[in-house]
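Quick entry between incubations.
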Amino acid sequence: MGAACGPEMIVDPDAVRAAVLAARDQGRRVGFVPTMGALHAGHVSLVDRAAAECDDVVVSIFVNPTQFAPQEDFTRYPRTPDADRTALAGCRVRWLFAPRADDIYPPGWCTRISMDGPASRFEGEHRPGHFSGVATVVCRLFMAVPADRAYFGAKDWQQTLVVRRMIRDLGVPIGIVVCPTVREPDGLAMSSRNVYLAPADRRRATALWEALGIAARSWDAGHVPGAIERSMRGHLESRGIAVDYAAIVDAESLGPVEPAAPAVALVAGRVGGTRLIDNLQLPARSMRNE
Amino acid sequence: MGAACGPEMIVDPDAVRAAVLAARDQGRRVGFVPTMGALHAGHVSLVDRAAAECDDVVVSIFVNPTQFAPQEDFTRYPRTPDADRTALAGCRVRWLFAPRADDIYPPGWCTRISMDGPASRFEGEHRPGHFSGVATVVCRLFMAVPADRAYFGAKDWQQTLVVRRMIRDLGVPIGIVVCPTVREPDGLAMSSRNVYLAPADRRRATALWEALGIAARSWDAGHVPGAIERSMRGHLESRGIAVDYAAIVDAESLGPVEPAAPAVALVAGRVGGTRLIDNLQLPARSMRNE
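Done. Structure below.
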């Protein structure tokens, strides 16, 4: 529905809410893909997954100011509305929800959602206020788009934990689906920020994926987390990347690795002037080798 | 419905949500009265108003730990489940939602809603964290009880502003109805905490209502806010009340009184060991006398 002539554009949160509720009243399952635009193949994979699982798909595009710290790249974050429409042209999207800042943060806005737990470490340490901004805008978007399911990319693994925790703690009635990271042929995770990379930095940026490969092999070989972390960091630094963190932690709590539980390798660093993150799930293993 | 044999008791948030949504799907308007129990005539007036305006009424009873500061009266706050059922016996309540603490704050809970603006002054200053706890639990309750309207008492005037701000900022789809304060014959505002008052303190507690009467007369006579505040404070102190605040402010922003806008007189103080609050709406007036 709507695919032939492109999605219906909606700016007003009340209007998209009414449209979604009307569809659900008709027994249609609605999927939601919240984005900040600058769409790439990773976003398209989320939309395709939503279209495969749902009757109607809503994509939102909103560059959320509250998840950027003052010195970060909010003003220069890529805004590509025409290319975004092109990227979605082949997708089965019914509604494109593109609110204005005032629709999301009305005059006098002063309410924030904040979190400890999964938001505390890693991105939470290196981007103070980031996850509060994420939790706040995602909650607001979920109120506007009361879908059955929302789709997020595993590339922002910690964000998926923050969103899951927020909806559980506040009881927001929506399901979360986490989809695999989509990568460039050389392994670099798709990111709207990759356009910032100068050619030499673009080549060096593969070091994140290489570090995750090192982690996967070391994990399979039974190495202890601390040793794997040192290997990852060493590789990243050898490629001239300023490492924010390179960690092996429990995949759910982001605390120390638990016996026989899935873990995750997390990396973040600056490649030239561009900050990139990536991660890789590590299957549960016996701890007897440690 | 359900009045003859009393309301249906529901503990599970998902169950009350399903019941409310099923009623609304049938075209029924649902009203919600969130309470901390220890029900008095003020609560009953909210329930009666909800019953007059709605097809079905949900009353929740949950003594919310996160809105009490550590040194406050959470543990001794009155819990009167049998009396609460008696108080509601004459009311048309369909569901009585009484979640356990774990239903509202699941294991690992770490998400809070916080606010500046209307939450900053007065109760926000004297009860740090109080309004964050209120906003958080009210949002959680609204997710569990997706009613058309929720009913709050004007006695907690600042709380009504905080709740309105929260639902506006997060886009929570519910209407807020604020109902007049119900008073004892001598003017004392109904409060679950009035049971704490020893007889002598109970008599002195009327000073709050008397101070509000002074404010109303002075306001009508055109006195400036500062002078009215001094009169209120003087009266409260003359009756041995330890004043937290006695203020004349804009009724919506709680900032300085605006010309030709409604104002509110706010008082709070400790009578013996019991902290009481009260307020009175003051109609918009011309500022030319000031």
